[in-house]
Specification:
- With 95 residues, the protein is an alpha+beta fold.
- The chain has four helices and three strands.
- It has a three-stranded antiparallel sheet.
- 18% of the residues are buried.
């Protein structure tokens, strides 16, 4: 087995950033709860993300493999929808 065959056979995972977009209708209580429970952020990290969204209109919540990023995004959107919350998330491929 040479180096070329190893490179062809090994597949690196694709990573995606989960990005939250600013939405004036989103309640801070819901966002804080979502960040600390689903995305496992501590209170300080969650507050930093919230401030980043407020000042820059968006913030990266986390970087995950595609499957996990998609799962967390769909779970968050479903939870928001069930509670009548307005939530906008995007997945962005990380180079």
């Amino acid at each position: 087995m040479n180096d070329n065959s190893l490179q062809k056979d090994s597949v690196l995972p694709i990573f995606n950033a989960v990005v939250i977009l600013k939405d004036d209708d989103l309640t801070l209580e819901f966002l804080l709860s979502l960040l600390t429970s689903l995305f496992r952020k501590n209170e300080m990290e969650a507050n930093d993300i919230i401030m980043d969204v407020y000042h820059n209109d968006e913030s990266v919540v986390g970087i995950y493999t595609y499957d996990i990023a998609e799962y967390k995004t769909q779970l968050a959107l479903g939870l928001a929808r069930s509670l009548g919350e307005s939530l906008r998330l995007e997945l962005r491929r990380v180079a």
